[in-house]
Amino acid sequence: MRRIWLFVIGFGVLFVLVMTSLVSVAMWQVAEKVQPFEVKENLTYGPNERNDLDLFLPKDDGEKLRPAVVVIHGGAWRSGDKRQLRILAELFARRGYVAAAINYRLAPKYSYPAQLDDCQRAVRWLRKNAKEYKIDPKRFGAAGASAGGHLALLLGTRETRNDSDPELKGISSKVQCVLSIFGPTDFTDERYVQASRNPVLGKALIEFVGKPYDEAPNLWKEVSPLHHVSPDDAPTFIIHGDQDPLVPLEQSEKFAEALKKVKVEVQLVVIKGMGHGPTTPEQREEFMKALDQAVEFFDKHLKR
Hints:
It is a single chain. The chain has an eight-stranded mixed beta sheet with strand order 1-2-4-3-5-6-7-8, with helices on both faces. It is built from ten helices and eight strands. Helices cover 41% and strands 18% of the residues.
């Protein structure tokens, strides 16, 4: 019971500590390097609450079009803000990507599929406005941590769920490359199922999905990126610690194996001793190396 308790509350409580750690990992890079980009803040990409984003635009280097990356914050689908992964957006912008750090609707006020719909809408809005921001609509990536990693994986495995808006009709939401930083992949895993059977301990998960597992097992399957894997999915880079108490390493291992089976390129970097984020100097060093590898992975697939 104690493990389930730590698993569930950890998504909401420890995420703040994790993001503080991730930001501190990379702050020295920002201080040492000139930031060759401009930022347009609080652009509106949709009609709903929290449908806004910050856009990081690299200085024009003469190229006609640039690849884009949507950066998705975590926080157990119920908290967090686009500023939390600003450092990741800046990292991509310094490498020539148009990076969009987005907000999206949160539980418990909004349950799934609001979070997915907002993320997909952000991609589609950027594609619609690709000419204005000099984006190549055929070269899109998504990156996120924890709950944001989960949503990024859905952008790489699923096409638009709701195509009812006439302004965005027919515009794809699927991305061509994904970075998941310890994002959950399978909500039908026994640990998640058991947590959902306790209305107190499983509150965060139930409020995100909308119903307990036993009332809607197919819905819990629907929110799981693992159950949407197919040969046309996006190449994926995953970073995960082997001591993560919130999202077990097995979640990423199963997803990586599933992609390999359908011949989609995937790279999983496991950081020894790391939990749900780096906490020691050695882990931070390994984490930064993994981020550099992730950007190189994106370069390979989005700058061809």
